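Database export, one record per block. Field names are fixed; values are copied verbatim from the stored entry.
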Amino acid sequence: VIKNGLALIEQGFITSFELQANYLLVCGRKKREKEVFVVLDLKSDGTIACPQLDKGGNTTEDMAAVGLILLEKLFEDHINDLTLDLDEKPGNIGAQNTSSPKKVVLDFPAKLIFSKKGQGLFIEVFFMRHGNFEKLNNLNQVIKPSERECLLSLMLQLQKFGFKWNKDGLLSNCLESFESFVIESLPNLSKKYFVECPDYIKQLAQSKGTVQLTLSAQKDGILGQQFSLRQQNLDLEIIEKSLRAKNHTYWSENHGLIHLQENTVSWLQRINDWKNRYHYDQLPAYLLLSIFNPNPITPSTRQWIQSFQSTKVSLRPWQIVLHPYQEQGVRWLKAISLANCHPLLADEMGLGKTRQLITWLLELTQNDERPSLVICPASAISAWQNEWENCYPQMPIKVLSHDCTVKGKTLVLASYSQILANISHLKTLDFCCIILDEAQFIKNPKSKTAHACFKLKSQYRIASTGTPLENSLTDIWTIFRFLMPGFLGDFKEFHRFLQTQKNQEYLKQQIAPFVLRRTKNEVLNNLPQKNEVVVYCPMTPKQKTLYHQLLQGRFSVKNGQWMRLLALILRLRQACCDPGLLPDYGHLDISTSGKLNWLLDTLKNRQNDFSKIIIFSQFKSLLDRLHPHIKDLFEETYQLSGQTPTQQRRFMIKNFQTTSKRAAFLITLKAGGTAITLHAADTIFMLDPWWNPAAEQQAIARAHRLGQSHVLTVYRLLIEHSIESNIQALKQEKINLFKQLFDVSSTLPTFKRWETLYALLSNKHTLKKASSTKFSEEG
């Protein structure tokens, strides 16, 4: 039969064979004949059976022989160098010298000694010779046919558990199969062979243990990590080995198989990345509230949060007048800072954030001789100088310059552009405190300015912004990257995290302990009312003609021509404000502007109604054209833009606030949107709408803030049936969509952004005029 099987192999009759854990399938076919097959059952005790032999004929027997031959060939890589002892006399395996005193041992044909080799399970094989077990050290030894049969039987039992011959024994590195091996195969081997197996291997019968991770806040704001398995604590060294192991499963002699869950693996990988990226020696406790923390919030974490949310922190008796809500804010900020966390002060504009920040800084730098740094827009430097000199003139203050040396206990003021220009020097300094004022200036995570701020080092950090955080959740990543590196992961995974509404709500919960936001309505019960009126002004005939000529250009703008679309939108907005802003039409008088006609007529006819006014516009050129006409109506006028020198800016703001004369202040929206206090104004005119409602509210908050003593009226001037009225309608109806149009981190698809912007050129208008006022040309 064996000869017939060899002949079938030589003739090419065998088409395929397949070895699995418990069977061998052999298939064969001659040309133009039906395929035949035979299945050999590989039993757990190492024996082989062929159920088809009872039903088949000679071909089945021959195919079974082929299976045996092929099975042995499969193991030839391991045993082909074994030389058979052909002089051995036939006999039963296990027939031993019964006169030996080791009778119990001699009843076994072989001895198997189990041990741990690296992360593998190792078996040494010994055969009985001359009354003693001799180790099979290599495969070049001469062995007997009975020993060869014994070795083949072992290989049949062990191959499905990943065992292969390794120099001087059988080795398996398939940790996932160890449990089933100890449960299924080890008892059978113990019956047939003399087995020596240590207890730590037998304990593999326990299912692999999943590591439990417990995080907690330690003293000095350090994050504590505790790893446990079956109520036993594990060393970090074992955890690191498990992290590097295949499938994150590690075999420890003391603890058995250790397995790390995927969320724990993700956490550890992130922790190691943070250590390398941010050069952490110890992990900060604020990572307890990371959105990627695999553990739910525990009672100890809640207790830790409550410890710095309380207002029991004491303050020194500084000569700074604080309102009760401001004092409460400073206590809260100090408590968070002392917990090695870094807060975001997001009070609504006009509630005195600068004064709170100065008090916070004084509290933390009292006994520290290191310098501190305030980063703010260039337009806000003078406001900081004034406030600092009023609150704490004793401490030196410097405005950063190229030749400015920073050392000792000094407060350094720097604009965002100055930080970028001087970062090579500033990143080498160790500051006590860093304040990031108007932190929305670094909301673009890819900007060089943001990355320059990331490189600065300090013990305490704080950010401040009056812009509501809900405007763009992606904006806060950059701010918290500055405040607490690693807290929100890297930007790409944070962006992916925000794709679901559930995760967005979870994010707000996690950052809440580090954010303080209060509105005027909450803390200023005596703040005068603010009335907002939308005024729809008709176009003049000349203005209407030019506008509709421009509007015809929308038909020549093809999908994807972004520059042409944005240029057309700009020209239409200029035409709505004043046709004289358009190229080649600068010679036109401002009387061609229906909007400016309404403004000047209103100011002339109701002079007694306006004591101090502010006029905001996106376009400096519009204010330049308007300024001479405003001078004729007010005793004092001022004009502020991004080009205004700092000292002149301080002078104009102070004069506007203190003068008893009727005054007008013309300000570009960008230059006057931050760091200005103009609560002496009683009326604001917004000459043109802008995309971001928050930017407009920031400008309005220059006047509607702490210190305001009279009702503030805000007039929004819009041209009826134009791109401006479309912008207003879109802001009212689709506010969330609108916020993403020009956001660099926006998730809005390109086609949707194009579709929305192009729709602004439509002649269809769905305006909500419930709170607006329409004026006729005569009116």
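Remark 1: The chain has 29 helices and 32 strands.
Remark 2: Residues 61 and 362 are 96 Å apart (CA to CA).
End of record.
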